[in-house]
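Page header: ASSEMBLY MODEL / three components / 872 residues total.
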Amino acid sequence: MGIAVEAVIALVKIAVVLGVVSLVVAYLTYLERKIIAHIQQRLGPMRVGWHGLLQPIADGAKLFLKEDIIPDKADKVVFVIAPIMVLVPAFVVYSVLPFSSTFYITQVNIGIFFILAVSSLGVFGIVMAGWASNSKYSLLGALRSAAQMLSYEIFLGFSIIGPLMLAGSLNMQKIVEAQSDVWFVFYQPLAFVVFFIAALAETNRVPFDLPEAETELVAGFHTEYSGMKFAFFFLAEYASIMVVSTVAVTLFFGGWQGIGWIPLPGFVWYVLKLGAMIFVFIWIRATLPRYRYDQLMRLGWKFMFPLVMANIFLTGLVKFLFL
Amino acid sequence: MFEVESSTRVERSSVVPGTEELIINMGPQHPSTHGVLRVILRLDGETVKDCDCDIGFLHRGTEKIGENITYTMFIPYTDRLDYIAAPSSNLAWVTAVEKLFGWEIPMRAHYIRTLVAEFSRISSHLLWLATHALDIGAMTVFLWCFREREMVLDLFEHAFGARLTVNAFRLGGLFQDVPQKFLDLSQEFADLFPGRIGDYETLLTDNRIWLQRTRGVGVISADDAIDLSLTGPILRGSGVRWDIRRAQPYAAYPYLDFVVPVGENGDVYDRYLVRIEEMRQSTRIIQQCLAQLPKGPVSCKVPRTIKPPAGEVYHSIENPKGEFGFYIVSDGSETPYRVRIRPPSFVNLGGLKKLALGGLVADVVAIIGSIDIVLGECDR
Amino acid sequence: MELAFFYLFAAGIVGASLLMVTRANVIHAALLLVLAFLFMAGLFVLAGAEFLAGVQILIYAGGIMVLYLFSIMLMNVGVAVRLRQWHRQSVLALAAAVLLGAEVWAVLGRGGYPGAKAWGWGLGQTPGNVEALGEVLYTKFLFPFEVASILLLAAMIGAIVLAKREITR
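Prediction written out in full:
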């Protein structure tokens, strides 16, 4: 067993995860379109394949073949790098996610912290895209997005401290194992609420989709993008939805651990829980209007920030007194 | 974005600016200006410092066209004014011309006109609610509203053979009586619609985000609204109980029982509530029209060539968007000497600056939505 | 293997930093600085300090640099590009750089930081990385830690006061 063999195994794992995740992310768009369509009492994609099942593939082919437009006054290099900068962190994060007790690419001691750190890089791509496009709508979108993601990253980070204090580890596997009796969502409901809201904001989802609020800023930071570059932004968005859903499942819903004595493999449990989380994301998109920029900031700093702080304090107090 | 003429050394002071004001052209191709409206916004950060409307992208010279064609030929042109509520525009024109002649219109025609005009109000308000909600980010309401609007358009198709530009009425009454199926389907719709309004309201009326986005936004006092000669739901949203259907009744409105809803604060939310209630009242009017619908002819006797007496007339009706009027000067020939249109959207849009100043960009979107403009009659 | 990665990251840091200070466009410079930070995080990982690597990315790259970009974007980059990039202080700066370089050389010549071992946790101690850091931070280095946080608090309050005055004026 030399380094070469290990490297090959790792590469195969990476290839499998990357391939599966790309496909799943593509089908997430299909899922979203179908679910929203049925909430809105229409059918959604029906033409390509049975019940439109081949729609994401058709979309992908279309986006690949589209003309790639770079605006004349754009900063060409940054304009091209930006979508990559958005997509790469979103996918790198998958390297530490525990899909089941045995299947994962790598295990790092700072697992959850790694996820936070790497996904915080995604905002660069957005800021770069907005600035490089040299368009006012893009710039406004990028500014909004930078402010929003920076603020909500803080709440996201603080909201997971509660569960981490209970688990006593940053390692994703150990966090899951710590929940073999009771899921942390029951110990940490406040933290979960804040985490979920912050996650919606982090992934630019309704009701916090201000950076790409199409009715105000046309399309926000990706107004000037087309073809595959445009697709990159969307792939990254859906990939991040998967990531935050995974983190939520891992931290609050016991990861791949089953409920009661129902004999299902860990991976199935994981997928079920992930699916439920993603469904809630989509459900919310179909239901709620959009917040205004100042209201978003107020909600974050004046409501959620004190809440997470209180949660950390309470958790510490309880842990100190009773455990 | 920042162009500098000189390519040599630049003074340091120009390198470190304080904060810059950003001028944004919203439209004419922008998703939330509801047509080809161009709003020039001067922004400090996201706060609106100045706001200017640039209109006329859809100008087709309708008033001038009116001087060159006969009174009957002008009816389809009115379809293209407020194309969201075409029968309403038709009604304004035919009632104005009939006033010029002094014709007596049969009651059945009056009732059917009222019925169709109220359907057009519902259709217009549905489109308004759909786009307004979408502007603020509520996507589902948009599609639900279009589901019901589809039913209304189908009704128009049953009665007049067209869906959008229906050319519904003729001088002196109707072209022909409406089919029984239209009446049956209307009854069906009127029974079903109040429940659907309830559906929209569950998504919006008590929604915290919706309240935060609309309450206290775009406030205008009753006095200001009157000074700017705003009409329609904007005026009523500010608490002024002025509705031409009540104040200067026309068609079958004198015989019908309905409430004119008014708001209190004159903000976007109150305008929303007023329009929602107006849809309920419209349904009530439709129910009454269907119940009371008299039998008889649908048109009075109209001469082959229509030559009105010389003179002038102004007649206005309550369009879904506000006061929609025609001022006609006749010189006794087959064509009008002068046609002047009093468009509600054009006048209401004049209030945009007052409403938008000091708000945020996101508010401008909500306010334009709450004014409910249609550029067809704004630009004419 | 590790050595190869070390040289890769080190070369990355040097290259990105050099490019950064020579760029006329401030945005490009800022982005290159981010790149340098990422390579630095790589170095931390090689040294077994995963937590520090995470902090490096999260705080410096993901937080501070975004704020930098944020303010740079609002400035007149087009004009800044045309500015003369060198001025009279360049001789002085060069002298300072040489001096600093000499100092670093001298310190390195003495054989690294002898105090590092005395902190009680070697760099290679991977498993309890975070615990070890927390332990040291809240016992041995509690005082400097608190001083640093008070310093930051003061800076924050100062910034708020300065910004507030701007608005009310």
